[in-house]
């Protein structure tokens, strides 16, 4: 008779009963496992398919988001290190999510994959969701604890390669149960499966990236930006300034010079008005704060500008020209693109408006 126990009591039905109970747990956890795997798969493929994620000038890029989060994250020094090699870290995040997703969906080294999912979710919590109040409005902390279930239990022997590997390794007649050789055989069979899964992941990532670029990436106007001199060379406020432009035939028309004797217009000149076509938006760096911002031109004579920093947790919003809204990629916040007012999601207040106007054919901001 077996001496195993269940909840501290002797289990008279033996270890086979324990295995059945564990398997039952695996079936019960299957919906959560599928949800976590599919969600991480989606997040990963979305990043890989979006060229703007890797394009430093885009507000939805890894660089822009990391810079926006750096000042308010408790792991700012780590973010600072990541900004030294942003393309590498952007790729690591996307491929890390993909590896975690494939591992947990296939049930291969499930505990290890779940630990990876916990670490990624914890990183997102300490950056993207750190300023979210109350804390449970941010989903990342929930993901941390959801992953912890699989870090502790694995896949429960249900629909997983872990169970298949164990049965194959145990089937070898030459190894004694619990021997070092048997453990080595487990690892060998597991490594072979992991290599095949990694090759599948590589093909999936490559195909997704190619398709994303062929489709032109996201429809947001994230790739275009106004050219503004860096803060060190920018003039102080209330000083006339005109940015240098390349002398090409396609260059925008020259801005009319103010009449002699007339007081110079106030504010900082960003670019000729023609740099922002009517009905479109461009990103720029707010000369006053050094933070990313959006410049929109709703009519030929009017421009409006807003800080691109979401008032919820500091992510950089994107402009959706079709809906005439700013959309926050972190928690789905949406803002009116004419007023900056909150339309949906958790942001507590409107986007900060930046005074902007067209003077003598050029865009100026205060
Ligand atoms: S940071 Fe949460 S909605 Fe923008």
Walk me through this protein's architecture.
- A hairpin with a 2-residue loop joins β12 (356-359) and β13.
- By secondary structure, the chain is an alpha+beta fold.
- Residues 218-223 and 228-258 have low confidence and may be disordered.
- The radius of gyration is 27 Å and the shape is elongated.
- The strands form four sheets. It has a four-stranded antiparallel beta sheet with strand order 4-5-6-11, with no helix packed on it.
- It has helices at 15-49, 51-54, 62-70, 76-82, 86-106, 110-127, 140-153, 161-170, 180-214; strands spanning 5-6, 9-10, 268-272, 281-285, 292-299, 302-307, 318-320, 325-327, 334-336, 342-344, 353-354, 356-359, 362-365.
- Bound molecules: FE2/S2 (inorganic) cluster.
In short:
The chain has 366 residues and is α+β, with helices and mostly antiparallel strands. 42% of the residues lie in helices and 14% in strands.
């Amino acid at each position: 008779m077996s001496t195993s126990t269940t909840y501290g009591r002797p289990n008279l039905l033996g270890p086979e009963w324990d295995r059945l109970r564990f398997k039952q747990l695996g079936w019960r956890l299957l919906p959560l496992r599928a949800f976590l795997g599919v969600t991480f798969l989606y997040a990963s493929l979305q990043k890989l398919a979006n060229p703007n994620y890797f394009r430093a000038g885009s507000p939805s890029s890894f660089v822009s988001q990391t810079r926006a989060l750096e000042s308010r994250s408790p792991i700012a020094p780590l973010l600072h290190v990541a900004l030294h090699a942003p393309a590498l870290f952007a790729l690591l995040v996307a491929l890390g999510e993909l590896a975690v997703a494939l591992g947990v969906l296939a049930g291969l080294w499930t505990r290890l994959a779940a630990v990876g999912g916990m670490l990624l979710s914890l990183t997102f919590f300490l950056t993207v969701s750190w300023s979210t109040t109350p804390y449970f409005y941010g989903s990342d902390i929930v993901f941390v604890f959801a992953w912890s279930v699989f870090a502790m239990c694995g896949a429960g022997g249900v629909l997983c390669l872990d169970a298949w590997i164990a049965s194959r390794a145990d089937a070898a007649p030459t190894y004694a149960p619990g021997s070092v050789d048997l453990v080595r055989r487990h690892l060998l069979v597991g490594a072979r499966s992991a290599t095949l899964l990694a090759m599948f992941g590589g093909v999936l990532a490559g195909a997704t990236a190619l398709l994303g670029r062929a489709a032109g990436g996201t429809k947001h106007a994230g790739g275009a930006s106004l050219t503004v001199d860096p803060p060190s060379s920018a003039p102080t406020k209330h000083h006339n300034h005109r940015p240098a432009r390349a002398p090409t035939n396609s260059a925008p028309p020259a801005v009319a010079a103010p009449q002699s004797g007339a007081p110079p217009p106030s504010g900082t000149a960003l670019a000729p008005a023609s740099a922002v076509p009517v009905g479109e938006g461009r990103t720029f760096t707010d000369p006053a704060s050094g933070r990313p911002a959006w410049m929109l031109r709703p009519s030929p004579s009017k421009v409006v500008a807003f800080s691109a920093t979401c008032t919820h947790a500091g992510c950089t919003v994107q402009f959706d020209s079709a809906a005439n809204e700013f959309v926050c990629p972190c928690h789905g916040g949406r803002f009116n693109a004419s007023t900056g007012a909150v339309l949906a999601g958790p942001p507590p207040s409107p986007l900060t408006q930046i005074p902007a106007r067209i003077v003598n054919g050029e865009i100026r901001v205060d």
